[in-house]
Every structure is written in structure tokens, then in C-alpha cells.
Write a structure and sequence with these properties.
Layout: E1 14-19, H1 37-50, E2 56-61, E3 72-76, E4 80-83, H2 87-99
Parallel strand pairs: 1-2
Antiparallel strand pairs: 1-3, 3-4
Helix pairs in contact: 1-2
Bound molecules: FE2/S2 (inorganic) cluster.
């Protein structure tokens, strides 16, 4: 849905939601927290500060319903989804997507 001319200015330029949902071991869908998403979220927060990225918010989210593809994160207002498996993936998303305005296509989730 496009923003309208009279909508207020974005409070954050970039809002990242990192799924930190945890299911019991052995659950058929698995969960992002079981794949270390909480540590990656924490790393992303630290790294965003180190890179002096302003007006960014990195939040822990509940299940984003793409569990099998996780650990999942989605970046708004772009609406781009990523699978973040490592600190290197987090670095790539912050440096290339957030700072350079590119897309890290090899980490993007499929549209469906
Ligand atoms: S557990 Fe992360 S998307 Fe569902």
C-alpha cells in the first residue's frame, strides 16, 4: 500500500523485524530462535550502532509465518524479507541494503 501525501513522516527510516519465536525442540515447523535468530538480532543492534546508522529500529518479532525459511527478518518500509544465518549475513544486509540501498539478492526470501 503506497504512502499518501498527508501521511506523517516516517518515525524510523528503516524498521527491521527479526523473528525471535521459539518452539519446542522437534516441532515440525522449527523456529527462528532455534536457529540462533536472537543472537543475530542482538548482533544486528550492536552492528547498526557501530556503523552509526541513524533512524533505524531493530525489533524482535514473534512468528512471521515463514518459519521453514528462517531465521527470517523483514525490513520496512521496503517490505524485503531476508534469511539471516550468520553475522556475515547481518553485515551484508546492513551494509548493502540499509546503507547502500541495494538488495542482497542471495539472502532474499522467495516472494511466496
Ligand atoms: S518461527 Fe520465525 S517465522 Fe515462524
Amino acid at each position: 500500500m503506497p504512502r499518501l501525501p498527508d501521511d506523517p513522516q516516517l518515525f524510523f527510516d528503516v524498521h527491521v523485524f527479526v523473528c525471535c519465536n521459539r518452539r519446542p525442540d522437534g516441532h515440525k515447523r522449527g523456529s527462528c530462535a532455534a536457529r540462533a535468530s536472537e543472537q543475530l538480532r542482538d548482533y544486528m543492534k550492536v552492528r547498526a550502532k557501530e556503523l552509526a546508522i541513524r533512524r533505524i529500529r531493530i525489533n524482535a518479532a514473534g512468528c512471521l509465518d515463514r518459519c521453514e525459511l528462517g531465521p527470517c527478518a523483514v525490513i520496512y518500509p521496503d517490505g524485503v524479507w531476508y534469511r539471516l544465518e550468520s553475522t556475515q549475513d547481518v553485515d551484508a544486509v546492513l551494509e548493502r541494503h540499509v546503507l547502500a540501498g541495494e538488495r542482497v539478492t542471495d539472502l532474499m526470501l522467495p516472494p511466496e
